[in-house]
Structures are given as C-alpha cells and as structure tokens.
Amino acid sequence: MAETKGLGYAVYKEAYDRIGTIKGVARELGVHPTTVSHSLRNGDARAEVKHTDQLSALGYGTEGRELTAQDAWDSHVGAFERSLTLATKAHWSPIDRPAGAYVVAHFTDPHVDDNSTPLKLLEADIEASHEMGAIMCHGGDLLNNWPMAGKLAKQWAKQECTLPAAILRAQHYINLLRPDVWVDGNHEEMNGGPYLERLFGEWLQDASPNVIRDYWTARFIVRPEGGREVRFALSHKFQKGRSWFHPHHGVIREAMEGEDADVYMEGHLHISGIIYHTMAERQKNVIGVASAGYKMLDQYATRISRGGVIPKFKGRCHWIVCDDQAGEDEWPGKVFDSVRQAEAYLSGLQNLRAV
C-alpha cells in the first residue's frame, strides 16, 4: 500500500481506461476505491482547467461572469410567451360543423355504478342524441364511488355493482357516448388519480380520437360553415355563490369575469336549471345550463337537489339547439330538458331554413 501512495493521475487513468471499473483499478493497484475515484475526478478537473487556459490563450473568452441584477431581469425574455402558449393552446378548441342548425347534448354526473342510476334511460338519451347528430359533452362524475380509497369506497358493500363491474360500465359508457368534449369531476379527481386518468385516456382515444379533454373546465367553439360561431364552456362546476340552491351563481360570475362564452354548462350539485341572462354592460346574451345528472334516489340528491323521494326525470340532461343563422345580438340557441322537444325544435329549424 505504501508503494502506491505516490501514484499520479496518469497511472489511475491508464488503469481505468484498461479495466473500466473503479473497484477493478483499486484491486490492481492495491488502493481504496475512494482514492481512485477522487484521483480521477480531480485529475479530470485539472485537465479541464488546462484546456480552458489553452482556449483563453487563443482569444476565446471562457471565464465566467458574475450575474448582475439586470442579467437576472433580462433572462426572463420569452418565458412569459412560452408559458402563455402552453396555457392557451387548448383554449376555445374548434369543432367544425356543416351549415345548418345543430344540437349540443350536455351529459353530466351519470354515476353509472350506483343503484340509483337508471342505465336504460341514460342509454336511451345517448342514442337519441346521436340520432340528432349532437355534439356530445360529458361534464364529470362518471363513477359514484372512488375506486382506489376514500370515504366513498366503503359504499361498494352497499351497491350491487362491484368495483370490476364499475370499471367495465365506465368503459361501456365511453363507447356509447363517443364524446366530443370531456372533463372529469370530483369523483374522478379525489381518488381516481393516474389510474383512472390512464384508463379513461385509453378508452377515449379508442372511442373518440379527436375528443377535447381538459382539466375540470373545457372551452370550445362550434363553427358551422357560413354561420354564427358559438362559444361553449363546459365545467363540472363553476364557482358557486353562497346559496347551494341557486344553480346559476357560478355561471353568472363566470360570465361577468370575462370568459366570454355564449353558453355555460355545469353539473355537480345534481340541480336542474336554465337561465337566459343579458349582460347589459356588454350588450351580450348568455345561456346557463345546470344538469342534474342520473343519480336519482340517493340521500344527497333527494335532500339537496330534488326535494322528495320520487325521482324527477326531467333535467337529468339538457339539449341546446343552436341556430347557425342567429344574429350576434340574439340568443345563440334554445335549451330543452326533453329530448322529444329538442328533436321537434331542431326539425322545425331545419325545415324553416330549407324553405
């Protein structure tokens, strides 16, 4: 060991190039591996300094310069623009349509794993919407129970639907809906995590490759050929006011704070409501739609949203029939909580425009 104390960097470097491992060099030279590591690292640093000195002698400025306050300020150039581009690249995603009136179907809070959800009614509403060629929107809370854990996980024991069956129901719903626009709700957010996000992402890609998907709120603009463009904001829930029983506090606040949509759609509270609101200060008409969803018989829905134990089927979903020939100072469409009325109104508009 004493004979190797004076070994220099060149010896360690030659041995390392030949053997390839720190431990192998240490065994061959009879030194501790740390000694080899330090020698190689320090030798490389000295070699780098020597190389830098040679470049400086040739006129290249390699020395560092202390960062000034102005340098720190100027280094921000382009950062805001890049951040803005990332934040707004999906804002007002376009959906192009042929000329003519069209329908936007607002599905939310289906809770397909709950005993209180009439799946046949949900399926019938989806089929009727497709028959009208509707733009299909999902506003969150596909599942009732939180699949991974949490305070709702214990409800699996009270439901006929098991966890594996619930996941399969979710997949079937996506295949039936073939959504054009999708946002998740609190039941996905609270404890679904990357597990649900990955599954939903795969199924959505298969069912609707061009689906518009955003976190909690998605904004899109429908552009009929040669007609009026209409901006939609789809959220699981806009920020509510102080009253849980007023379905449109969040919509009015969202409109006042400048999102500049024509139609706002939300769910979450299992409340049904439609509002046509004129913002006089902007000379703008906006429509708010709150859909109750399909969870019809649980304690929350009867106490907060429905006022009784008898299920109220109207308002579970809404259909917005838009007139592509409506003027900018007119309502962009009319909202229905009955699919039959929506079909009749759409047919009337189409016949009127055909004449």
Characterise this structure.
By secondary structure, this protein is of the alpha/beta class. The chain folds into two domains: 2-57, no CATH class; 83-354, Purple Acid Phosphatase, chain A, domain 2 (4-Layer Sandwich), CATH 3.60.21. It is 39% helix and 17% strand. It has twelve helices and twelve strands. The protein has helices at residues 9-19, 22-29, 33-57, 69-74, 79-88, 119-131, 163-177, 186-189, 193-207, 249-256, 299-306, 339-354; strands at residues 93-97, 102-107, 135-138, 181-183, 212-214, 217-224, 230-235, 263-266, 273-279, 284-290, 318-322, 333-336. The strands form two sheets. A six-stranded mixed sheet has the order 1-6-7-8-10-9, covered by helices on one side. β7, α10 (249-256) and β8 (263-266) form a beta-alpha-beta unit. α1 packs across α3 (33-57). The longest helix has 25 residues, at 33-57. The radius of gyration is 31 Å and the shape is elongated. The relative contact order is 0.12. Residues 1-5 have low confidence and may be disordered.
**So, CATH architecture of the largest domain?**
4-Layer Sandwich
The rough form would be described as elongated
User: How far is it from the N-terminal to the C-terminal residue, by CA?
Assistant: 103 Å
**For the residues shown, what is the average pLDDT?**
82
Strand portion:
15-25%
What is the tally of helical segments?
A: 12
| Domain count | 2
Q: Runs with pLDDT <50, length 5+?
A: 1-5
Overall strand count: 12
* Biggest sheet character: 6 strands, mixed
Helix content: 25-40%
Provide the structure class: alpha/beta
